[in-house]
User: Fold this.
Amino acid sequence: MIDVVYRLTAPGMFEVACQELELDGRQVLIRPRWLSVCKADQRYYQGNRAPEVLRAKLPMALIHECAAEVIHDPTGAFQPGELVVPVPNLPTQFDEFIAENYLPSSRFRSSGFDGFTQEYVLSEPDRLVRAPEKTPPEVSSFLELISVCMHAIDRWERFAHGRRERLAVWGGGNVGFITALLLRRLYPGAELTVLDINEEILSYSSFADRRLHVDQVKLSGRETLCDHAFECVGGAGCGPAINQMIDCVAPEGSLALLGVSETNVAINTRMVLEKGLRMFGSSRSGAKDFDRAARLLEQNPRMGQALGCLVSDVVDVRSVADIHKAFRLDAQQGFGKTVMNWNI
Assistant:
């Protein structure tokens, strides 16, 4: 069958192309319905990547956050009309010790491999997760981002010691909000603090026990703010955030790094050593993280409603001009997600 693909060929330029899809009796045919714009997509669209990276990656269909409708499943795992969330990470091998999202051999949609700005997509059944029934489809479209935060928490649960009475999240934006909300649900008895430089963004995390502007943190002597900390700032602000975390976390605490920075940052390694801290990074996610995130939302419908506050705009997309509109609207947002209702 013929598939229509909308590929970014250069910053701000899309090309419509056709390709042949071969139904082989093993793969599920899905149609993307809801697409969520990610900051990584924006960096390609705006041209905010190194020229050599753009040359290597483009042309490419964008978007790796998607909720799709099942059209045909020859394996019988899914029924036509079901809403599913495709896992964008496509491993080509299994490793006993290294997760699928860290294997260099894995492919990732919208990063050197076509994403979901297509009419149809073929997917292996194990790369599909049922969307939580009571979660709005706009929220299901960024289950991938929720799974990334879930993956970081899963790693933290394996690395951190058992004293988890005080947890803190640096960064109240999309990643910080989701991480804090997951921690609130998974560790309801812990004291949860969210920190940011923006009072308006902090106001969204009303479920936290404390919301602090970073300038409000005043510690004296051996006082600490938290047992463990999560960095969700990224960009130019992640260096100061990590160093403040090092100052604020208790000895032998853990620091989970989720924020992406395009430049190297300087950190206070002396205090990392002195306090015996564990610092680790997390990137992307795998199928099991999607499963855990979907189950949590299924069991807690109110979480799906709370995550709805992240949907800042829903753009009905019926033409290439509408794709441009969605990216322009998203670029104006300091908080939230732009979702495309994919009717093209």
Observations:
- The mean pLDDT is 96.
- The first strand starts at residue 2 and ends at 10.
